[in-house]
Each structure stands twice: as structure tokens, then as C-alpha cells.
Batch of 4 targets.
Target 1
Amino acid sequence: MPLEASMPSLEHTPPSRALGLGDATFDRIAGLVRTECGIELSQSKSNLIVSRLGRRVKTLNLITFDAYVDHIETPSGRDELRRMISLLTTNVTKFFREPHHFAALRADILPKLIAKARSGASVRIWSAGCSSGEEPLSIGMETLKLCPQASDLDLRILGTDLDPVSLQTARRASYDASSISNLTMQDQGQFFEPADDGKNLRAISELRDLITYAELNLIGEWPMERPFDVIFCRNVVIYFDNPTQATLWPRFANALHRKGSLFIGHSERLGGPGVSSFEPSGITQYRRI
Ligand SMILES: C[S@@+](CC[C@H](N)C(=O)[O-])C[C@H]1O[C@@H](n2cnc3c(N)ncnc32)[C@H](O)[C@@H]1O
């Protein structure tokens, strides 16, 4: 056999081995991600890790993923840990994703909440895991359609996420044509205006002003003191393991007013001790008992 045929070549080395992502290194990264934000990375994600983190490893002039994890585990590696989590989170979202939830808001929930706010009470809606802002903006558009003066009332939407990069986009509220394309022409015209860059469309200030954004890790402490009327936590816990998911449902129940609504993603299910605090009220929609 020619010598080169017996040598491992980079060309034929799976990408996860090329920079040194062996099983032990994968386990170190997966362990850090699990502890930090609850996200469960399966072995099938090793190519994703290589493609998303490989550039960071090279930019930092490190030779292997192990050296990268060593760096993250030093006290000065805290910022890099946040950057790593940000690179590994799935931030896919879109306006009016799972439209039946917005139909329920429009038909049933918001009219009552707007009446409540008009009576002088405060109304709070939380988009937990809001990514780049499309979800809270969709809630805001439905609110303004029913109540154009909503910003004069004590009615506010809170958008939180772990990922500071997504939150930056959410705060800017400026989106390219493809992100806006699933909005009706009417919604585009009513709620968006040309952004300063001359290319994107930006949410109008009346809509932006309804929403406050904050960085929040759902598996950490929640500093909010007042209960919410509605919580959207959709397509977030699907990335957590079952025990972590189970710890969140009772916390969401405690964070809701009695009869407050919880919306979860289409492939998520309530489980564990929090289930008894909720009754189904629609498709992946629950009411706090
Ligand atoms: C797929 S997006 C879902 C966005 C939106 N809720 C939707 O359904 O379109 C998931 C979001 O959850 C966030 N996330 C993941 N783990 C989190 C955690 N532990 N705490 C807060 N946010 C988290 C990610 O940063 C990401 O922006």
C-alpha cells in the first residue's frame, strides 16, 4: 500500500475531528452550554459546533477546540463563553409565526386586556426568548390594531432573551425585505417605515415604544416582580432537556395572573409538576387555573 494511502488526510477527516473536536471536547462544550443556559446539545450537533465555533478558534489563534474551552474556563474567558452561547443558540423566528396564537390574541385575549388597561389597570405581556424581536413586534401590531392609543395606557410588552446579539437587532427593530415579506402589505405600510440605511424597514416608534427589551437567562433568576397577563415562550424550551423544561412550567405559572395565558411552541408540551396549574385553552395555549 502506498504510504500516503495509510495516512489520515485532512481531506478525509470528518470536520469535527479536523480542528480537534473529539468526544471529550464535545462533552466539555456540551456541559458548559447545558450548565449556562439549559440547552442540550446532542452528538449530532458536532458539525454545527465545528462550523459555528471554528472561526472563533482560528480568530483567537488557538490550535484546537480543547484550547478554546481551556480559554473559556479561565476567569477572563467569561465574555467568550457568552459569545460561544450566542453562536450556538438557534435564533430562527419570524413575524406572526404560528398564526393561530395571534388569532386567539386578537379575538379573545387582547380585547379584555385593552379594556382592563382602559380602566386604569396595568397590563403586562412577556415574550420570553424573543430572539430578534419579531414575536413581541407581532404582539404589538395586534395591540395597536385594536387600540391605536395603546402607548398612552399602562400596557407594555417585555421581550427577553439570553442572546445579546439578537437583542441588539430587536432594539434596532430594522429588518430586511425577506424578514418583512410575510407581513401583509397593510401591516408593512401601517407599522414600518424606511430605515436610515435606505434598504431596511424599521418598526415605527409607536410600535417600538410598547416594547422593552432585557437580557435574561430563563434558567437563572427572574427579577420581574409584577405578574404577567400573557406569556409567550415559544420554540425555546424545545432545546432544553426534560428536567429543565419541567422546572420552568411552575415558574411561568407563578409569573402569571390567575387566568393569565401561556403560549408555547408547536412541538413543545407541558410536563412535570407545573401541569396542574394550567388548563388547555387552545392549540399549545394554556390558561393559568
Ligand atoms: C428559536 S428562537 C424562538 C424565538 C421566538 N420565541 C419564536 O418562537 O419565533 C429561541 C430563542 O431562545 C433563546 N434562548 C435559548 N436559551 C435561552 C435561555 N436559557 N434563556 C433565555 N433565552 C434563551 C435563544 O437565544 C433564541 O433567541
Target 2
Amino acid sequence: MQTATSMMPRKIVVSGCSSGIGLAICQQLLAAGHQVIGISRDPGRGGINHDEFIPWELDLANLALLPDQLGQLVKAHPDVDGVVANAGRGQFGGLEEFSYAQIDQLLDLNLRSQIYLVRALLPALRQRAHSDLIFMGSEAALAGGRRGAVYSASKAALRGFAQALREECSRSGLRVSLINPGMVRTPFFDQLDFAPGDEPSHAITADTVADTVRMVLDAASEVVFDEINLSPLKKVIKKNN
Ligand SMILES: NC(=O)c1ccc[n+]([C@@H]2O[C@H](COP(=O)([O-])OP(=O)(O)OC[C@H]3O[C@@H](n4cnc5c(N)ncnc54)[C@H](OP(=O)(O)O)[C@@H]3O)[C@@H](O)[C@H]2O)c1
């Protein structure tokens, strides 16, 4: 007999809760009756007003402070049974356009902070009979693209991390999943010189990615979605002014 996990209220950490995909995930999880600990530098920015929303201010890119800060999170919430590691940003350009500091900053947020977050929460997750760890990868994790060397490196490495962790945890009740979206219409593109085209078919919505996260969380506990790739129907990119 399959065990459905969908009806149980859960306590789920979502990083990058203040905008775009993470905000949509938080809203859907709260609407479904879960408790959400939302991490970002400004977790109130997304305007979530819900009794079960616990804002947790954290700069994930500040690695030096992160072990202590994550320790405080685990101490306050030892009963977390789900993590959506979603925070991240895009920076694109030829490699020579990146300073060494910019390379470090992008890898620190998109890769190293994810590893730190999991390192801190893994013992608690493994103690649970059923728990979930979901990473937000990217199509850039699957294939390197022009002007995306550092971003692709961060997401491809995250994919390797998720795959290895899935093996490491395969005898426990912790399910590890990776979602790789193509272009999603979010503020991710606000600081970039390109964006998806204007038609609905040119980008995925943040709600569609959130739907996918809920599908992964709600799957029968015996089933793991190892990896899900999502693409807009049409790949159309426009220049941002
Ligand atoms: N949009 C796309 O086309 C697309 C496609 C594939 C994958 N992704 C991935 O999806 C994830 C979410 O992107 P999005 O499109 O939702 O972008 P977004 O709208 O710009 O949201 C990014 C989120 O990350 C948080 N964040 C950024 N820097 C942070 C830091 N130093 N510490 C803590 N939180 C930080 C932001 O919160 P604060 O600013 O409040 O800190 C924000 O909540 C990223 O990992 C991205 O790589 C996006």
C-alpha cells in the first residue's frame, strides 16, 4: 500500500522566499496547510502575511557567518522535515568579464551556501521517518551555454552534489530531488541584459515551478523524483534595455 505524504502538515524551509520562484513556493505551501520558514536577506519583501510563515533573515552569501547562523536555525526548529534550497542569482558574461571576487560571490551563493544549508539541516532531516530535500537547479546544470560559464559551473556542481547526496541518503527516509527549470518569468532577469520573450509560451511561471515542488513533496513516500526538467514551450530570448 502506498503512503501518501500530502495530507500531513509539515515544517518546510524555503530559501529565497522573498521573490520569484521561492515566493510562489511559500505561498502554495502555506495555502496547502504547511508551516514555512522563509530564508532571505529580506524575507518580508515578498509581502507574505500568514500565521504559519516564519521569516528568517539570512545572507546566504556570507559564508563566514553561516555555520553559526544555521546552527541557530536548527536549534530553534529541530523538527524541520523539508528543505527547498532555492535561493540563487544569475550573472552572465564572458569569463574575462568576471573579476575573481565576482566568481567567488556567485559560487558562494549558488553552490557553497546550498552545501552549508544542507550540512546544517541534514542530521535533523535524517532523523525523520520521511523528509524531503529539493534543490533548484537549472537547465544550465544540464548544458553549458554561451556567457554562462560561472553560472553553469555553479548549477552543474549543485546537480552533482544532489546526485551524490541522493546516493548517500538512499537508505534513509530522506528523498533528494533536483528541479531544473528553463527560463522562468521572475525578477531574476531584472539585473540581466536578457529576458524571456513576452509570449506566455516563452517562459515558465513561478507557480508552475511551485506546482512541481508540491508534486515532489506530495508524492507517495516510497517514490522519489530524482530529477525533473521543465522547459517553456518555445525558447525565445529578448534583449533587456
Ligand atoms: N528565473 C529563471 O529563469 C530561473 C531558471 C532556472 C533556475 N532558476 C533558479 O531559481 C532560483 C530562484 O530564482 P528566481 O527566478 O526566483 O529569482 P529571484 O526572483 O531573483 O529570487 C531570488 C531569491 O533568492 C534570494 N537571495 C538572493 N541572494 C541571497 C542571499 N545572499 N541570501 C539569501 N537569499 C538570497 C532573494 O532574496 P533577497 O533578495 O531578499 O535576499 C530572492 O528571494 C535561483 O536559484 C535561480 O538560479 C531561475
Target 3
Amino acid sequence: MTRRFAIPVGITATGQFYPDRVVTNEDFAAYLDTSDEWITTRVGIKERRWVEPGVASSDLGAKALQMALDRRGIGPGDLDAIIACTVTPDMLFPSTAALIQHKIGAKNVFGYDMNAACCSFLFGLTTGAAFVASGVVKRVAVVGCDIMSSIADKSDRNTVVLFGDGAGAVIVEQVEEGMGILDFEHYLDGAGAPHLLMPGGGSLNPPSHETVDKKMHFVRQNGQEVYKNAVKGMSDVSRLMIDRNKVDPVDVRLFVAHQANARIIEAVAKRLEMPMERVAMNIVHYANTTSATIPTALHQSLEKGALKKGELAIFAAFGAGYTCGATLIRWAY
Ligand SMILES: CC(C)(COP(=O)(O)OP(=O)(O)OC[C@H]1O[C@@H](n2cnc3c(N)ncnc32)[C@H](O)[C@@H]1OP(=O)(O)O)[C@@H](O)C(=O)NCCC(=O)NCCS
């Protein structure tokens, strides 16, 4: 059975923001045992953006959201809720959503942070859409913002090269009949937790000199294990969207997958028999920005005219948890 909302709900505008500072593969090769060749061929990244000290996720998120509001031709006062999707909140509390609300000057909104790791934006989009579909909320901003450089160990070639900072935002509201989110499927599997995590700083391992000395405040992952599961997870759940909705794969004009490794995206596209010209790819310039990968890749695809009103797109993501999911959407504008 498809998971379709009773009221058609879709995305009506997008926005993005990246910090100016470009960090290239050569910058890492200058002090680590790595090379542009290794990073390019194994992961498909050439450069990424990193913030300067003192810039937080809410700063990036607020700018991306402001662009989405401008594109929609509305103001912050037209929002009912803000969902900030992030694994790198400004601080544990208050929520990054509250800080974004304050920065953009929204009034009379509610909101909170959503952390489903690299699926945060996808799950946040569904949550925002469900509020609108309830009929009692008109407009929700879903903002994916992460400063992954804040949790990347700068001395570890295995992880530091993979991540970037950035933000993407969408406005979610009721759309024409037959448009918007047609179906979604999302999964949680905590058995995958040991393979991708940041163990320090929470209630299990509160910050201490010991947790800092043991580098527990950085991302850790079992790369090959995550790679295998990401390819299978995103392929299977995307295939489910196609089969369950009796969609001809040829009619899927745009496939936007979480950008963790270009080889993962290519492998998923191959399994889905999706030609690469229909696959959004921004990892080469921005690396893995976690909650921001899908909304920014979507925004950039729209700028290129890759998706038009009435056409179908699939969003898919896989991340820590494990979390996994896909969403089928008919573009509404
Ligand atoms: C992380 C990842 C890029 C590593 O690529 P890989 O081909 O699996 O490489 P491996 O981990 O097997 O490492 C192979 C070798 O390359 C080395 N290596 C790792 N990073 C390197 C780097 N930046 N430069 C040079 N060598 C590197 C490793 O140390 C290892 O060396 P060894 O054989 O001497 O021990 C890949 O596994 C991946 O993308 N995994 C999934 C990531 C993901 O989706 N994360 C989710 C976040 S949402």
C-alpha cells in the first residue's frame, strides 16, 4: 500500500547556502598521506566548502531558508513551522530550529530539530508534509544544515576528506491534486549503529578530557560496511517506490540520492537502470554535507531545468542509525 497523504503536499520553493572557503584535495595532500587521485577516484570529491570559526549550522540554515522564502515570494511571517534537520546543531539545546527562527525573524511558528543522520532531510520532509496534510498547518520550512567540518578529525585521512559544510531549504505546502509527494518509505535499523557514529558528547559518553583524548567527538565509520548497506538500501527502497506506484523508470526524470560517495550513487543508479544524466550529483564540489545533500542537489538540478512541473523525481538516502528511505514526488511548479 502506498503511503500517500490525504491532501496533496509538495515542495513549492528551494534555497541553498554554502560558506565561501574552498578546501581542495591538494589542501589535504599537503599534510596527510592522501592524494587528489585517491579521493577523486574512490569518492568523486574534488573540493568542499568549510566554514570559518564562529559560524554555526543555524547561520547556514537561515541563509538557505531566506533564499527559499524569496524564491516563493513570501516572508518569514508566512511560515507556520520550521524543522531543522542536522547532526551538527549549534548546541544540544536550544534547537537549531529556534536559532534559525530568530535569525530570519519568523513569528508565531513552532519547530524543532530532526536528527536521522544522512536521512534527516528526507525524514524531515515527510514530517513537514504530514503537518500540512493534517490540514491544520499551512506552510512548513524544512531546512537541512550541517557543519561536518566541526566533527571531522582533521588528522584522519579516512574521514576528513569526505565531508563538507552547507545548507539547503525547501518550503512545503499544499499543491494541486495529483502533484507533490506520492509515496515514501523510511526505515530505522539500530543494529547498524556501531558502523557509523559519533560516540562522544551525548548521555552515554558525556564530554570529558577522556572523551576528547579518545577522539570520541569525531565521526567514525566502517567505510566498507556502510558502503555495501548504502548501495543495497537506497537501491531497494527506490525500486520499491517504482514498483509500488507502477511507475515506468523512464518517467523518473530526476533521481536525487544522498551524496556520500559518487561510486555509491553510480552503483545505485546502475541497479535502477537510471541513466546518469538524470542523476543529481554535486558531491564533486561540495562533498558529503549530510542533511544538506538532497535539498542542495535538488536546488542545483532545478536551476539547470532538470525537473519540470508534472515530472517525477525520487529522493533516496542512507545514513547512520542505520536510517534509509526514499520519497516519490511529482513536481508541483
Ligand atoms: C570511506 C570510503 C570512501 C573508503 O573507500 P574504500 O574504497 O572502501 O577504502 P578502504 O576503507 O577499503 O581503504 C582502502 C585503503 O585506502 C586508505 N585510505 C582511506 N582514506 C584514504 C585517503 N583519504 N587517502 C588515501 N588513502 C586512504 C585506507 O587507509 C586503506 O589503506 P590500507 O589498505 O593500507 O589499510 C568508502 O568506504 C565509502 O564511501 N564508504 C561509505 C561512506 C558513507 O556512505 N558514509 C555514510 C556517511 S552518510
Target 4
Amino acid sequence: MLDIHTHTTASGHAYGTVLENAMAAKEKGLTGLGISDHAPGIPGVCGPEELCSLRKNGRSLYGVNIYYGVENNVLNDGAMTLTGHYLSMLDYCIVGIHGTCYEDLGPEENTDNLIRCMQDPKTFFVSHPDDGAFPLDYEKLVLAAKEYNVALELNNSHIRHPWRKDTLKNILIYLDLCIKYKTNIFIGSDAHSPDQVGSFSEAISLLDEIGFDDDLIINNNEEKFRAFIGLGK
Ligand SMILES: [Zn+2]
Ligand SMILES: [Zn+2]
């Protein structure tokens, strides 16, 4: 199992270093760890140069394989805040709607904006598409995710703290559609501190309850994950 949605001090409001997250990943028995700090656009986040230089921490720490990505922001015109040269240096992009840099435009436009970002060759994941404050057309989203080789997140932190509008209801809607269309998902801890790295228990319980197909979960096997983001074996 890998945790590919974790944050470090580079996000400004997270509290572990790459080393501390890696140590926590080892203690949880993960084979891989993805560092996916927020992209510029969210207050307190470091600049793109600093974000990309996290790679200097190396590819293997405490026996855990380390991947370097970003949790990018979708903007109201369907663009992302981190693009071009900097994005190309990273292993993968997770794109998500964040209220600090996005204004709700209703389900149709919100979904179209996300889909535009999903078409970027570096985007392999969508974070927490469950917040009812930014409604989505789930049928359209799940079909687009399949078409563009993107996995949708089941965000453990959002299940554990379900204060967002309709979070649990929305999660069940898109998981059902992922089963129907055989669209991939990933389980993310969205850890903002090392103790949260690899925290998947609520997500795993939910997936067990609904009988979700393990084959569709991208981060439960390292080879599957590497192939999915085009790194191969
Ligand atoms: Zn954050
Ligand atoms: Zn995150």
C-alpha cells in the first residue's frame, strides 16, 4: 500500500518534513509514499521552486519508495495554478477544488473545469471530489476519469471529519458509479502531520461495506501505481 496524498511543511499549514513522513510511512508498513504539497494559490504555500526541490530528499528513505507530486488547484477558468516547467518535473499531479482559490459555479461548470484539468498529461488523480459546497455532476466526472486515466480520491480525512456539505452522501454516489463504470479510485490520507500518514481505516471500512472491487484501487499495489502514472516497473 502507498499513501500518495500527504503534505509537508512546504504546504505552510502542515507539520511534517519529507523525512518525518517517510519514517511514519515505514512504521505503518507502507511500501511507497507520495509527497503532494499544495500548489501556490493557497495562502502560506511555498513557491514552485521550493516545491520541486523537495525531490532532493531522494527516491528511497528508510526503505520506503518516495514519489514527488503536487496537489494542484483548479481555477475558475479550468486552468491549474502550477503548470508547465514545474509541473513537468514532478511524478504526478492531483487536482482538486479548494475554496481559497475557487468560487462555486454550479455542478456543470465545476465538473467541466475539473475535466479540463484531468486532460493535462500530468494529472492522474482528483482529490476529495466530495464537498457539496462545490457540487459536481458525478456521472460526467466518473466517465471522464475513466476516459482520461484519472483516479478519484476516497479521502480518509473527509470521512473521519464529515463536516463538509453532503460529504458521505456524495462519496457513496461516486463510488457506486465507479463500480458501475469500472473507474479507478485511490485512498488518500491527506495527512497534514506525520501521525496521519497511511491513515486509511475509515475508507477501507467503507469500501468493505459496499463491496468495492480491490482491482480498481490504484494505491494498494506499487506496481499498479507505477504503471498508472507511467513510470513502469
Ligand atoms: Zn491542506
Ligand atoms: Zn491534500
